[in-house]
Amino acid sequence: MWRHDSRLTDGFASQAHRVCASGERTAPGYDFGMERGVTPTWVTSAGVVVVAGKGGVGSSTVAAALSLIAARQGANVLLIAVDGRPGLGPLLGGEPIGPEERTLRSFGRSGRIRGRTIPPEQAFSDYLALKGIGGVLRKAASAASLDVIAAATPGLEHLLVLGKIKELQREKSADLIIVDAPPAGLAAPFLRSASALQAVVASGPIRTQADEVAEMLADAKRCQGLLVTIPEETPVNEVVELAYDIEEKLGLSLGPLVVNACWPYLAGLEMSPTAAARAQGVTLSRAAKAALDVSARFGRARMEGQQRQLARLDELLPLARIELPRVPTARFGPAELDILAAALAVEPRAAS
């Protein structure tokens, strides 16, 4: 595994601290691990990290933030977008990613982030090459056969993609491979593809591939899952279901649960605007008081709802947890990603 370089993380922390100190892009009440040069042990515990969550909770952003943490610590990181989302490249300050691997960012002597997608047809072609099928025949076979074979073998396309990831991990093509998995509704079928095919294929190359992928997923040193949610009822329901599904049925080791877009606790939120203004020697107009009353009620309602969902997670999902701040911005870009990466680079709070 790579070695931590404090010069890289200290520089990152300073940059994140300058952004946070402005008060423009982040909220108070959050600790930023990279300011202290922390190397979270969970980041380095497995060679492949599969990041998954319900659509809209920020799992792709968390995958990008994780790649930034590792690369700034000197790691050679390969970031794979299973669904082919090209936006991960610009988010990291690079070009949109595609099937051809490209370097998105570099740090110091060894730290870098490479990005790519893995289309099923490319994974199929690579698999045929691995089995010794030549170029022209391979191209014809991969173009003509995959749709037919996949239609007759549900889960095969997912297995081919996971098989390619397995080969990349086996070849040690990176210190850390981060997989931006499909949204929660598709993440479970994606990860279950190997076990599903094991149940119906008794022998042959597909069975061998399924066995090898299942072995990787069940090996905590080779692969772990990182689940992402937000403190709202439906995303919490889905992440709880996904966690038990993949851990119990697949044996996939789970890292800390990441709760994204958390509202920070604001001291004095329970106080009425009139009382708060009086304490500061300020007199409010009727219009200002009405506007502040609405804002305060909204803030209290959001905090109460958030606390209910965090309490549900405590009860239903006994995983260590990292809470990331809500970053209000019109456009989420590299500067905002730095804030989340700094907040993510901590040891998680133990499950209660």
Summarize the structure.
This protein is an alpha/beta fold and 352 residues long. The chain has twelve helices and nine strands.
Question: How would you sum up this structure, described in words?
Answer:
The chain is α/β, with parallel strands linked by helices and 352 residues long. It has a single domain (6-344), classed as Rossmann fold (3-Layer(aba) Sandwich), CATH 3.40.50.300. It has twelve helices and nine strands. Helix 9 links the parallel strand 6 (223-229) and strand 7 (253-254). The longest helix is centred in the C-terminal third of the chain and has 31 residues, at 286-316.
Order of helices and strands: HEHEHEEHHHEHHEHEEHHEH
Report the CATH topology name.
Rossmann fold
How many strands appear in the DSSP assignment?
9
Q: What oligomerization state is this entry in?
A: single chain
**Strand-residue proportion:** 5-15%
Report Rg: 23 Å
**What is the CATH architecture descriptor?**
3-Layer(aba) Sandwich
Q: Give a quick account of the main beta sheet: strands, pairing sense, barrel closure.
A: 9 strands, mixed
Tally of helical runs? 12
Report, as a whole number of angstroms, the end-to-end distance.
30 Å
Helix content: 40-55%
Task: Quote the average pLDDT.
Answer: 86
Give the full name of the CATH homologous superfamily: P-loop containing nucleotide triphosphate hydrolases
In total, how many domains does the architecture comprise? 1
Contiguous low-pLDDT stretches (5 residues minimum) are 4-33
Q: Pairing-aware structural class of the strands and helices? A: alpha/beta
CATH class: Alpha Beta
Q: So what's the overall shape?
A: elongated
